[in-house]
Amino acid sequence: MAVETERIRARRRPLGDRLAVLGEREFTRFFIGYTTSLLGSSMAPVAVAFAVLDGGGTGTDLGWVMAARILPVVLVLLAGGVIADRLGSRRLMLGSDVLRGLVQALFAALLAAGRAPVWAMVVLVAVWGIGEGLFMPALGAIVPDLVRRRELLADGNTLLGLSRSVSTVAGPALAGLVTATRGPAAVLLIDALTYGVGALALAGLRLPDRPPAGGGGSVVHELRSGWSEFAARPWLWITTAQMGLFNLLVWAPFLVLGPLTAQRELGGARAWGLVMGLYGAGAVLGGLLMLGRRPGRPLALATAAGLVWALPSAALAAGAALPWVVAGALVAGVGSAVCGSLYGTTMQHWVPAALLGRLTSFGALGSFVLGPLGLAAAGPAAARFGTGGVLLLGSVWQVVAGVVVLGVPAVRNRRWEEGPDT
């Protein structure tokens, strides 16, 4: 009984203790720069979507532009993990921020000059995606260097997740307002400036020198080794496969057909900004609920929370009024924060540090690899089967897939008290 009481106390610490990680100088410096750049990044997709639509583009054009951003992410993720291990995460992330800032500045200039055809948008967002694909695995690897006190690592990850959630509240709502009043070019210029803030924060970090984590072997050898370790963990590859199919069948159609529906039926950019803003508000709420907590069966709870992702697509498919769509997005945001917090923490808890970068990149690759296909296919699929039919399929799939994954013992029975995999 005493042991269980101590565990409950550890999971429900006072808020001040949960924020002690902000006393870590390097973490706080990075946190400020990262949060600032995230704000701009969360604004940009709204601007890009309406830059395409306001320029006379179709749903299919929007799908191609959005796919052009995701596809390079998929292609460079694995290389990004290896490069981060060899050159250091900070250098790679700094270069990525500089690259993305320059791309967004150029994009804004073309839009302001009225010289941004769809093919030019595709090229620009593709380069933007390369920068993102290099940044993502480096982010997963840099956090242990930012947080020197190991007992604060989980809280550091949770705060970074909250940063992402807060940006999804303020970013889309602000982007909808700025896009409606000043145009998409102004939003992309703001994004470029925020990448500059992130780069300055990274440049000022003082991090320990670490030897290459890959052991000095060839890139192919390191990737093969990482794949073997990834495939040996059923809980990891099963949840990764589920997330990949979610991006194909649920999230990609929602991102393409949602703005299209908003433009036709819900009031345009302001309405879509509200939907995504409330999705972010739900994510903030979910992150606050998870801060400092460690449920006994984290993967089971994460999977169950993911069921609510079906709600916003179902509301759009049913032709519901804006308040219902917003409500569905709010609840889905809560579920997304619970999933993200638990999946990220379990990765760092159960995967050995020497494998974390590569296994993170494989997990990210599996999650994103089908996304470009979903984005590109959403418009043509809606033209053939109807927007409501495509969105309804995604909602049904999300529920069915979640129930199936919950039935897998490696997911359902995995307990927090189990030690790291060996």
Brief digest:
By secondary structure, the chain is mostly helical. The chain has helices at 2-11, 15-18, 25-54, 59-87, 89-112, 118-146, 153-182, 184-203, 219-231, 234-266, 269-290, 298-305, 310-317, 322-350, 353-368, 371-385, 387-406, 409-412.
Description:
The structure is a single chain. The chain is mostly helical. The chain has a single domain (18-412), classed as Growth Hormone, Chain: A (Up-down Bundle). It has 18 helices and no strands. It has helices at 2-11, 15-18, 25-54, 59-87, 89-112, 118-146, 153-182, 184-203, 219-231, 234-266, 269-290, 298-305, 310-317, 322-350, 353-368, 371-385, 387-406, 409-412. α3 runs antiparallel to α6 and α10 crosses α16 (371-385). The protein is globular, with a radius of gyration of 21 Å.
Order of helices and strands: HHHHHHHHHHHHHHHHHH
Shape: globular
Q: Work out the helicity level.
A: over 70%
Question: Mind summarizing the main beta sheet?
Answer: none
Provide the fold topology.
Layout: H1 2-11, H2 15-18, H3 25-54, H4 59-87, H5 89-112, H6 118-146, H7 153-182, H8 184-203, H9 219-231, H10 234-266, H11 269-290, H12 298-305, H13 310-317, H14 322-350, H15 353-368, H16 371-385, H17 387-406, H18 409-412
Helix pairs in contact: 3-4, 3-6, 3-7, 3-8, 4-5, 4-6, 4-15, 4-16, 5-6, 5-8, 6-15, 7-8, 7-11, 7-14, 9-15, 10-13, 10-15, 10-16, 10-17, 11-14, 12-14, 13-14, 13-17, 16-17
